[in-house]
Amino acid sequence: MESQFSRTALLLGDEAIDKLRKCRVAVFGVGGVGGAAVEALARSGIGTLDLCDNDTVAASNLNRQLIALHSTVGQYKVDAAAARIQDICPDTKVNIHRCFFMPDTADEFDFTQYDYVIDAIDTVTGKIEIIMRAKQAGVPVISAMGAGNKLDPTAFRVADIYKTQVCPLARVMRHELKKRGVKKLKVVYSEETPLTPKASDEEAPAGRRSVPGSTAFVPTVAGFIIAGEVVKDLAGIN
Q1: Beta strand pairing status for 116-119 and 24-28?
Q2: Domain total for the chain?
Q3: CATH code at 106?
Q4: Interval 169-220: pLDDT, tens
Q5: What's the Cα-to-Cα distance from 157 to each of 4, 28, 189, 192, rounded to whole Å?
Q6: Is the pTM here over 0.90, yes or no?
Q7: In a domain, 1, yes or no
């Protein structure tokens, strides 16, 4: 009988679909990359999703974030994402956390509850904390490297952090993780040399010298790649 996941089952099998329904995935950051990953996970049948982000939808998000619509501007991104997920798959359980994940908020999360963790946030300090907490809990984690100031969605690669090249954020993360004894980490990164954004009157995000440029297709592709890796790993396809 045809069902919402029947086309996915043709590739993964019914047993894998049942397995995905029992999985719980945490997504930290539900912007351009994380929001696309969340939607792909919901459409793939992940049973429970934990969404963490304290940002609200802004007009500048409309060019690239799946959750950004004129009707959602001003809403918390996790709220907009949760509503979208429920419309896609009402059986998916969604836990929302309206906070920025940083070392001072990390104790609010029990990483042992998760079957997989996605790091899709921008701050190095927060990324490192997510990775360290996941590693300590023995939970697989995948981390998004820089997607801003890029135009080529075909330049994304899936690799261990220590095999990355070109990406400035990956270079910083390699250095910081090596200091902390992290021997491996699956990441999605781009081998495209970042472009220099044009001057903007918009205030730059914390930790950035300028407002990063972005498009509808680059961060979305990164998010879909991340979701694909998570689904295949959880379903035992790789």
Answers
A1: parallel
A2: 1
A3: 3.40.50.720
A4: 999 999 999 999 999 999 999 999 999 998 776 666 665 667 899 999 999 9
A5: 30, 20, 6, 10
A6: yes
A7: no
